[in-house]
Design goal:
This is Major facilitator superfamily (MFS) profile domain-containing protein. By secondary structure, the protein is mostly helical. 78% of the residues lie in helices and 0% in strands. It has helices at residues 2-14, 27-33, 39-57, 60-63, 69-89, 94-122, 125-153, 167-178, 198-204, 207-237, 242-261, 263-270, 274-291, 295-323, 326-353, 360-380, 382-395. The radius of gyration is 21 Å and the shape is globular.
């Protein structure tokens, strides 16, 4: 029963890990509500949470070394509640919506960083692998439920879409009563002078942690380009409108959710090839979307994208605790979340630097780039080497 309570507490937090984007279905209504505000400014409501997440990811790892992770998670949930519910009552100024979006991002930064940490504390071995998969699945489930509800609630009054953040109130009480308080390692007073700085901890960290963080950065960078250009691609192919793009996005999320629930079994079958598998699935997805004008094949491409992302986002936080010691674990997880958020923020900027045209050309470029990454990892047996590093650490 205690393990069930822990699972409920952790997975309830996971429902909020993607809540920064749940208002996007009512962007057109918000643009109409603020006719004098540029559309790009309104769209920042969807991007500012990533900035908040990025900033928090830089500090939460260090905080987790001295403050129980449950308390930090509750702070994150409170931030989501405040940032999500204030616009229900105060929505006449766009600056309020932008500030609240940033506050939601701060909350997301806490919960998305701490969830894999909590899993690594309370679960070991295959149970941990299973929970990492469930974590990713519940990320997708929370996004699907909240985005769908936001679209329905905001159909008449756009600010009613913010009622979806009431889910965070339920999450707060589930975490408060279901999740036990984790212990923080006490510092030995006799060795206080040996206190290590953050930079020193990073210098001592296994090089494969940085390699995984780099891979996460590139994966998110290309997947963000996939999401941002999907509706443009559909328009260029003249196979549908924004409704089809929305359905395809949901179908991709469904693919990630199903893969997350099956992650423990997938890991048993291909545990030394998971990151390569993720890259190949994403490569296939991008090329299918680029080459095909058939709606059934577009659905296949979207589904493959969800599978590939789920495998990557479940594998990376599973491997990092294995590659790090207790002193390094929190910073390792922060590095993972930082890379995740940074990839999403800089994706349009980097593609703009290289003058990559939106739509078809973007899908071709990210397909080729993802294929190169997959081939490099296959050549160096990347996942196998990561797994072997973890085995060496465990045996020591």
């Amino acid at each position: 029963m205690s393990k069930l309570r822990v699972r409920v507490g952790i997975l309830s937090i996971a429902l909020l890990s993607m809540c920064g984007i749940v208002i996007t279905p009512v962007f057109s209504e918000i643009i109409q509500a603020f006719p004098k505000v540029p559309a790009t400014t309104v769209q920042m409501i969807g991007s500012l949470p990533s900035l908040g997440q990025l900033i928090i990811s830089l500090i939460v790892g260090r905080l987790a070394m001295s403050i129980p992770k449950k308390r930090l998670a509750l702070i994150g949930v409170i931030a989501v509640i405040v940032g999500g519910i204030v616009p229900i009552f105060w929505h006449s100024q766009i600056i309020v919506l932008l500030v609240c979006a940033f506050i939601v991002g701060i909350g997301v930064g806490f919960v998305s960083t701490l969830t894999p940490m909590l899993i690594s504390i309370f679960f070991k071995g295959e149970a941990r692998a299973s929970m990492m998969g469930f974590n990713t699945a519940f990320n997708s489930l929370g996004a699907v439920l909240m985005m769908s509800a936001a679209g329905i609630l905001g159909s008449k009054m756009w600010f009613h879409s913010y009622y979806v953040f009431l889910l965070a109130v339920l999450v707060f009480f589930l975490v408060l009563f279901m999740l036990p308080l984790d212990k923080v390692e006490k510092v030995d007073t006799n060795s206080i002078q040996k206190k290590v700085s953050t930079i020193d901890v990073l210098k001592q960290m296994n090089k494969y942690v940085f390699a995984i963080a780099g891979l996460v950065f590139l994966t998110i960078l290309f997947y963000t380009a996939f999401s941002n250009n999907l509706s443009i691609l559909i328009s260029q192919k003249q196979v549908g409108g924004t409704s089809l793009a929305g359905i395809l996005s949901s179908f991709g999320t469904l693919g990630g959710m199903i893969t997350g629930f099956l992650m423990a079994y997938i890991r048993k079958i291909a545990h030394k090839h998971l990151l390569e598998m993720s890259a190949l699935l994403l490569t296939a997805s991008y090329f299918v979307m680029f080459l095909s004008n058939s709606i059934p094949f577009l659905f296949i491409g979207a589904y493959l994208s969800g599978m590939g992302m789920c495998i990557a986002m479940a594998t990376a936080p599973y491997e990092i605790p294995i590659l790090t010691n207790e002193e390094q674990n929190s910073l390792g997880m922060s590095l993972f979340i930082f890379s995740n958020a940074l990839g999403g923020i800089v994706s349009p900027i980097i593609l703009g630097w290289f003058n990559v045209t939106a739509g078809l050309q973007t899908f071709l470029v990210i397909g080729i780039a993802m294929l190169v990454i997959a081939l490099v990892m296959i050549f160096f047996n990347f996942s196998k080497k990561v797994s072997n590093q973890g085995s060496v650490k465990t045996s020591n």
